[in-house]
Amino acid sequence: MRKWEPIISKQVLLSNLQAGGFETKFINLRDGDYEENYGRITWRDIELTKNYVGVDIKTVDPESCEVWCITVNFTLYREIAIILLKHQASKGKAVVMGGSAPIAAPQVELRNGATVVVQDKSGAANWPLFNYLLGKGPREALTGVVLADGTQYSNISLHLLPKNGRYHLWK
Asked: Could you point out which of 3, 57, 90, 128 has its C-alpha 20 to 30 Å from the C-alpha of 81?
């Protein structure tokens, strides 16, 4: 993983959750010098080693948060995200997976311990989902997610439609 890249999408997610009244904590796995070999792959008859450099995942305490949110937008980082997912889920904490990689094939994350995969990148799923996971909201309010049991809640569709010379949001 490359260090010091802007993580704008994570900042947007954090501010969205904070605006909904949720306490957030950001852990950037790139902010560390721990090194770990996590696999091998053969490319053009050459065996290559997969190395992770960053925060030692084993030092991220699963008990330190009520709900975990892991985002991964590049398949290049998906294996690292799965290692983190398994670690966080090992203590029974709810783990929300989001980003482009999990949207493409949510079964991978669900098989590896995710409580839910968010499939709606608009942010509309966030508040109802976290309220539900924290026991503060109904399951029926969920949209744009797939739960570990396979239940899928479709994205809501909002449209701007004119009415009396003004635009209004309609479901």
From this structure: 128
- Tokens 């925060």 correspond to 55
> Are 84 and 57 in contact, with CB atoms under 8 Å apart?
yes
Which amino acid is it at 167? Answer: Y
> b/e per residue, 15-40, with b = 16+ CB within 10 A?
ebbeeeebeeeebebeebeeeeeeee
Mean pLDDT of the chain: 87
Tokens matching residue 137: 């909201």
d(CA 81, CA 74): 10
**How much is the pTM?**
0.83
Residue count of the chain? 171
Decide the pairing of beta strands 145-147 and 46-54: unpaired
Q: What is the 3-state secondary structure (H, E, C) of 49-100?
A: EEEEEECCHHHCCHHHCCEEEEECCCHHHHHHHHHHHHHHHCCCCEEEEECH
Can you give the pLDDT at residue 122?
Answer: 86
**Contacts of residue 10, Cβ cutoff 8 Å, sequence gap at least 6:** 26, 28, 71
